[in-house]
From TrEMBL:
Protein name per the record: Carbohydrate ABC transporter permease
Entry membrane topology: Multi-pass membrane protein
Source organism per UniProt: Cohnella rhizosphaerae
Annotated transmembrane regions: 9-30, 73-97, 109-128, 140-160, 262-283
Positions in coiled-coil regions: none
PROSITE patterns xrefs: ABC_TM1 (PS50928)
Domain of life, per lineage: Bacteria
PANTHER family linked: ABC TRANSPORTER PERMEASE PROTEIN MG189-RELATED-RELATED, POLYGALACTURONAN_RHAMNOGALACTURONAN TRANSPORT SYSTEM PERMEASE PROTEIN YTCP
Key words of the record: Cell membrane, Membrane, Transmembrane, Transmembrane helix, Transport
Amino acid sequence: MKKNSAEKVAYGFIVALLALLCLSVVYPFLYMLAISLNDGADAARGGVYIWPRSFTTINYEIVLGNEVIRHSYLITIGRTVLGTVLGLFVTLLAAYGLSYRKLPLRSTILAYVLITMLFNGGLVPLYIQLNNLHLLDTFWVFIFPGLFSAWNMFVMLKFIQGIPEALIESAELDGAGPLRTLLQIVIPLSKPMLAALGLFTAVGHWNDWFSGAFYVTSQSLIPVQTFLQQLLSASDLSTVLGSNSNQEALARSAEMQNITLMSIKMAVVMVSALPILCVYPFLQKYFVKGVLIGSVKG
């Protein structure tokens, strides 16, 4: 069908607007990548925007060679994987149980969960509760508080209730119990929903710096995002360099003299952002379906 002149103008305007929006998202990423791959002293003179002018990998050698950053990276990976898997599992069990309309006190439980989603006790009561549970300054303070998400539970509940009842009934007629129905019927049909919510949960764990800043005091337990937050407020390179032998060897090199705090910061930002960005392509097949949950009627 032919477009008239007004439609062509509107189409061109939309394309230009989307192109500018994409540029506004991509450019900061390219800028940080260019600075991280550029000689620090050279980048301090300005003029580096998209492509490194004086290419070097010394910034990444310093970042990846630092023992504190490597350990914080492992903490972040561990909490992201474990927190996402356990969080989805616990929330799915709750949603699956509440999907049974004949469950005793079902309405009361749903109302209670809804209240916890709308209101919370605040930061100080949470801190006191974590202290009473002896979770402060432990790895589990990153896992247990986020095991259950009321919002995710309601999304899962809505999705499970959308599964044809005939499938559930046929499984029960064949002798399947609730657990077998969950494993063989509900979970296989819920892959788009689990992928979408899993991605959101993983991003939340990966980007969380607050827990590491306020709930742990040991430097060996801080995640990489908390380390990055500390680094962004640092005034010198002592936070990054430390005193291990690898850094001392780098400090003796002539190239080391040209690094700056800004170039190190950009390298840390890239190292902390790239892994979670690489996860999306593997979940894209399910992600688009998952974000449409509840928007259209099946």
